[in-house]
Amino acid sequence: MAEAIRHHAALVRCSCCGEWVTLDEPALAFRWPEPFRRLDADARSAPDTFCDTSFCAIGGEQFYMRGLLPLPVHGLQERYSIGAWVRLERADWQLARRMWDERGNDRLPELDGELANHVPHLFEVSSEGLAVRVRLHDEMRPTFRLIGTGHPLEDEQRHGISAHRALAFSRLPPQR
User: Which InterPro entries does the protein's record reference (predicted)?
Assistant: First the structure.
């Protein structure tokens, strides 16, 4: 099941059609990275394999961290954020785990990663595997910035989305 990220209700005029839209549904959030989701129960309980609410490892070889993929919404100060996972190199994953609750972790350089979820039904090309920069934050989940992908999701992150588009993300079926 997808985990809900709740935003307070906001009434926003849609930038594409001018209609007033109430954004009060939970934001899209992925429970697991795709590679973990695809594992059967035996593989999920294998040594060096786990997935909690912030970190995931598969066989001691693949390492993931959960965070937010922010998308500005035209006409709204608050960003719409997709709860997603990124794959990191072992050393970066270990650093992120070590620094997770430390004050000043936002002063660390950005980490390189790859998006580990596919946003279904909205793009013809998968979003899984897209390059991201990961920024740690003191008081909130890390944020992911898509870089040099040429993917429509990167354009939306850079230029913003309409209120109807945010609603479309929120209404996607939960991850199974």
Answer: DUF2199
pTM (2 decimals)? Answer: 0.85
Residue 100's Cβ-count burial label (10 Å; 0-12, 13-18, 19+) is middle
Reference 112, options 83, 91, 141, 82; nearest CA is: 91
For residue 86, what are the β-bridge partners?
65, 115
Residue burial 62-77, b: 16+ Cβ < 10 Å; e: rest: bbbbbbbbebbbbebe
Q: Is residue 105 pLDDT above 50, yes or no?
A: yes
Torsion of CA 110, 116, 119, 121, to 10 degrees: 150
Contacts of 101 (CB under 8 A, 6+ apart): none
